Amino acid sequence: MFNKNIKLVLAGAILGLAIWQFVEGNIGNGIMFILLSAIFIFLYFKNEMILLAFLRLRKQDFPGAKKWLDRIKNPEAALTQKQQGYYWYLHGLMVSQTNITQAEKFFKRAIKLGLAMDQDLAMAKLNLAGIAMTKRRKREATNLLAEAKKLDKHGMLKDQMKMMKQQLKKI
Fold first, then answer.
1. Where exactly are the transmembrane stretches of this chain (predicted)?
2. Which domain holds residue 98?
């Protein structure tokens, strides 16, 4: 919605307003303005369009998620580096069902830009391993699968990795 720099300026202005309210003796208003500025600071680090696209993907609504991601014009200027990583990660997840070559590019770009959570990075590498496996690149798929296993500390992707290893043996 707002550029990342505008969000910081708004947060600073609202924080200044909160300090002014504290000086005037309006403690309740000051606390409210501090909470309001915290929202803009939160949205600086987590883009609202990406959050809404994640919510749509959880409901398996790919067109809805694409609609939210398409609202981000010029992601290089509007997003921080980690947000750009998630932007391309979400594009890769949506395209992986139809066009694996394009999905591979999106996932590689997301990994290069960086993802904040190890679980998301493991998922991206697992998807890349699956794409490499379908393209008959066994060595690359094995390496990516090993990297994904290291990143999956909670064992959430254990079943998918086991199934992929069985499929790799067949190649």
1. 35-57
2. 47-170
Query: How many CA atoms lie less than 13 Å away from 18 in the CB half-sphere?
Result: 16
- And the tokens for 42? 């939160």
CB 117 within 8 A of CB 151: no
> Do residue 3 and residue 74 come from a single domain?
no
pLDDT in tens, 65-107: 999 999 988 888 878 899 999 999 999 999 988 899 999 999 9
87, 34: one domain: no
The answer on 99 and 23 residing in a single domain is no
User: Which residue, chain included where needed, has tokens 């998630």?
Assistant: 86
pLDDT at 1 over 70: no
Task: Give yes or no: residues 159 and 143 share one domain.
Answer: yes
Largest CA distance in the chain: 74
39 and 90 housed in the same domain? no
Q: What pTM does this model have?
A: 0.81
Q: Do 20 and 95 belong to one domain?
A: no
